[in-house]
Every structure is written in C-alpha cells, then in structure tokens.
Specification:
Length: 361
C-alpha cells in the first residue's frame, strides 16, 4: 500500500464509506472488509459502475480515460465482493476489457494486487507501464482507433516508453519477442544509421535489442564459443558470436541466475581474442560491443562464485549445527561431553595411581 493510496482510502472512510476499514498489521496498514450479503454486494458494484460510466463519459483524452478505468478497478478491488479471485478478475480481465472498449492498448501489469492500495494516479502510471510491457511482448504493433496504422501505433508506444523512462526495457523486450517494427522504429529514431556507429553515440541497449531479435533464446548457442579460431572470423561472424554472448549474460543477470563459470570464462577469452585480431579492429561498433559485454560476463562469474560461496558456508553451518545437535542428544555425544567436562582427578599424595592394563602403580 503506497502513501498516496493509503490517503485516498482514508479520504473514502472520512466520506462515510463504511465498506471497509484500515487496521494495523504488525506496524503496517492493512485493508479489512466485512462480510456482506449478495444484495449488498450487487448494490455496491452497481454504484461503482454507475460512477465509472459518468467519469468515462466525461473523459476528453487518454489520461482521463485511464483515470476513470483505474478508479473503477480500484474501487471494485478494495470492495472484495468475491470470496476469491478478485485481483485476477479485475487486474487481468476487467481492466483490459475497459481499455479495449475505450481504444486504449491492453496491458500486462507488473502486479495486479496494486489495485488494492495504490492511488488513482499511481494506477494510471501502472497501466501505462503495463501497455509498454504488452507491446514489448507482441510480434507487431497494437492497432487502436486512435492509432489505426502500424506506424502510428509503433511510434505512439515508443513515445509512451520514452515518457515513462522505459525505452531500453521496451527495446530489449521487443528484441526478445522479435517485434521488428518496434525495433526498427526505435533504432531509426535513436541512430541515424543503424549499420554504422556514430562516434560518441553508441547505444548498447539498442544493440542488445537487435541481439535478442536475432538470438531470442539464450540457451541456444550458449556453447558456441568452443572450438572457434578468432583469426578466421570476419566481422559479421564475430558480431553474431558477440550477440550470443550479450544475450546469454544479459538474460542470466536480469533473471538473477548464475551461469557455468567455465562458460563465462570461455566467452570472455574468445571476446578478448577477437578484440586483438587485426582484421576485426577496424570495426569500432564491434569493439564497443565487446568492451561492454566482457564486464557483464565477469559480473555473471562473480555472481556464480558468490552463490557457490554462500552454499558452501550454509553447508558448513548446517554441518556444525548438526554436529552440535548430535553432541547434546546422542548417548556417545553425552559421554564425550561428560569426559570433556570432568578433568582427571589429581594423583594421590603417595603417587599411587591406576594405569589401564597394569593395575595400581
């Protein structure tokens, strides 16, 4: 629950909306609804829909439409009129139905549960981000009445991503989905010449999008660094290999996954060999791609080592704890503890003592 969302809920309570209350749950505010009859739930829903119809009818632009939809879905979600499945019904189905009815692009929301505690303005932002996510996953542009051509729809989504600061995310996702129209439009806008590097304007994220478009599955080709002689590569072959390394390292790191250390080292060695080949050194774009990919491979290796070290330390701690448990619970452990706790008795004053196998000496 966000601060603005919490304030809006409190404003509703202050306006005598007694459908719910805000309670403290271990120091965190939590929404609590009360059991209602079917008739009460139906009346509640009809009131929210009536208010939505009024707001959407008065909307004059996309932002006002978004706000009307956000308020409707938020109010239905916090009313919790179903015993189960409220977030799925509203955050996946209803929100996209209302967007489609109003010629707005569909969304893939990062977290539909945010309808429970975000403000209307925050939910409008969430829907715009969701529209960018949806567009990135599509193979082509999403056509609407306001943007009836592929070119218009593509440029609108690109502008939306820019406004949200999500252009890089959209590019990479478009690359993974092989949405060539979106990639082409983005590259044409970001670089005047997509085949040649402009000094000082190298765009690694754009290159990453292209790499994902050509190699959408990072698992395919992840071992292609093996048995490669860098001296025999032409620039096109070298670029193809670098793109596979880019996709492999990016996807592993972005998904917080580790990789095989020898594989990351193998790619790094090959890239270093490429960089030192005279036949490839004239390609500034390829050199920049190599320079920015090698640290990603090294980071992946560091992450792999860190995870392995954590597992080893955890195993050691578990072994130590298990040994301590055995010492305190098993018969042999108790005997050992008893002997360790009791120091040998001092020899008698006359020097006589018992020696195993020899008796008293």
């Amino acid at each position: 629950m966000s601060a603005d969302g919490l304030q809006e809920l409190r404003d509703k309570i202050d306006a005598h909306d007694d459908w719910f209350e805000i309670v403290d749950n271990a120091g965190r505010p939590q929404l609590k609804t009360f059991a209602r009859s079917t008739a009460e739930c139906e009346n509640r829903v009809q009131g929210i829909i009536g208010e939505y119809n009024t707001n959407i009818g008065a909307a004059t632009n996309a932002d006002e439409k978004y706000a009307a939809i956000a308020q409707c879905c938020r109010d239905l979600e916090i009313s919790h009129v179903y015993a189960d499945g409220n977030a799925r019904t509203i955050g996946f189905c209803l929100v996209n139905k209302l967007l489609a009815e109003n010629d707005l692009p569909p969304v893939i929301l990062e977290n539909p549960n945010r309808f429970d505690g975000f403000s209307v303005n925050e939910l409008v932002q969430e829907m715009k981000i969701g529209a960018v996510n949806f567009a990135g996953h599509c193979h082509g542009p999403v056509i609407t009445a306001d943007f009836p051509t592929p070119e218009a729809a593509t440029l609108n989504m690109l502008q939306c991503a820019k406004d949200l600061g999500m252009e890089d995310e959209l590019l990479i996702q478009a690359g993974k989905s092989q949405n060539t129209s979106l990639i082409t439009a983005a590259l044409n806008e970001r670089r005047a010449d997509v085949d040649k590097i402009v000094p000082g304007e190298f765009d690694y994220q754009a290159e990453m999008a292209v790499a994902h478009a050509r190699h959408p599955n990072s698992e395919v080709g992840k071992n292609d660094y093996k048995n490669v002689n860098a001296a025999n590569l032409n620039p096109a072959q070298a670029r193809d290999l670098v793109q596979k390394a880019m996709v492999y390292s990016h996807d592993r790191l972005s998904q917080d996954q580790t990789g095989k250390q020898s594989r990351a080292e193998g790619w790094n060695q090959l890239l270093n060999q490429m960089k030192n080949q005279p036949a490839l050194q004239g390609d500034a774009q390829l050199t920049e791609m190599i320079d920015q990919t090698r640290p990603a491979l090294s980071n992946m290796n560091s992450q792999t080592q860190a995870v392995r070290d954590a597992f080893r330390n955890s195993a050691k701690n578990m072994d130590a704890a298990a040994e301590s448990q055995r010492e305190t619970t098993s018969l042999s452990g108790k005997v050992r503890s008893m002997f360790r706790a009791n120091t040998p008795a001092a020899a008698p004053a006359d020097g006589v003592r018992y020696v195993p196998g020899k008796g008293m000496t």
